[in-house]
Amino acid sequence: MANLVYKRVSTDQQSTARQNLVLHEAGIEDPVVFEEAPGTSSRLHPLQRPKFRELLTYARPGDTVHISEMFRLVRGTGHILDVLDVLHRDQVALRIHDGAFSAMDLTARHPRTGELLSTVKFMVQTLAAAGELQRDLQRELTYDGLRAAEAKGSKGGRRPAVAADKTADVRAAYLERRSIAALAREYGVSRGAIRTAVADLLPDYTAADPGTPAPELPVVLDMPGKVADFLRAVDLEPAERAALDQGVTVRRGQGYTLRVSAVPAVHRQLLARCQPLDGVQGAPAVPALRKARREYENRVSALIPTGP
């Protein structure tokens, strides 16, 4: 019986250090590790992730899957139940070593029906829903905080690594033929930060054509949930799909909106994809869907200039 370890991080700026610590403290014998590529989104269903699918192909009855915490593997309640059904079918156990699920036997089944115990199912759904609510609230608070900071004149994003009052010194030193590596060590920043500070002094620098239009900047718009649900079932371009997948869900009563950050061109493309919600020949429009599409259209038209 093998011990199969699964690890994942949501962005390529994160590391698996915390997961490694939890799993090391668990004392897992002879682990076979399956680690997703950095930045594998939690929105992608676990059964569609390359390394987890490889894990399931490798697994044999009696094996155990180990994860540091449940949310390294799944996010929504539907994903959890799907994974548990597959593990039960393949007679593979699941062991979670940290978090709310660590004290539960998630593979417990009714001795006669073979179905997941109702108490286990209830606890899984409740804890997963609570975790999902917590993440949504954190996103909302982060968004509101950024908006408040913008209103006070603050800009988001990382600060320049080379302080403004040091930039002139860095540029002067570079003109005196100090190397980028030496300047990076002296000022305690990355080489990329030094290159940014002296970009126009580099041999391969090419000045921008004054006639070239400035690149579009991302715009945040709230997309009605009915529109988002429709678009998820449509074939989209990679940029459109990425904008949709990275949207932030904001609960609104019984429904939700999806807070989407994308350049204006992508918003316009997504709006064009929604045209069928206004009705097509032989299929009248559903009033609620048509209303949602027009609500999104109004937001796109109000915030994004379409040009001459």
Q: Alpha-carbon distance between the termini?
A: 67 Å
Helix vs. strand class:
alpha/beta
Shape: flat
Number of helices, where a helix is a run of at least 4 consecutive DSSP H or I residues: 11
* Biggest sheet features: 4 strands, parallel
Question: What does this 3D model show about the protein?
Answer:
By secondary structure, the chain is of the alpha/beta class. It has eleven helices and seven strands. The strands form two sheets. Strands 2-1-3-4 form a four-stranded parallel β-sheet, with helices on one face. The protein has a three-stranded antiparallel β-sheet with strand order 5-7-6. β1 (3-7), α1 (17-25) and β2 form a beta-alpha-beta unit. α3 packs antiparallel against α4 (118-151), α6 (180-187) packs across α7 and α10 runs antiparallel to α11. The chain is flat, with a radius of gyration of 25 Å. It starts with a strand and ends in a 5-residue tail after the last helix. The model is unreliable at 304-308 (pLDDT under 50).
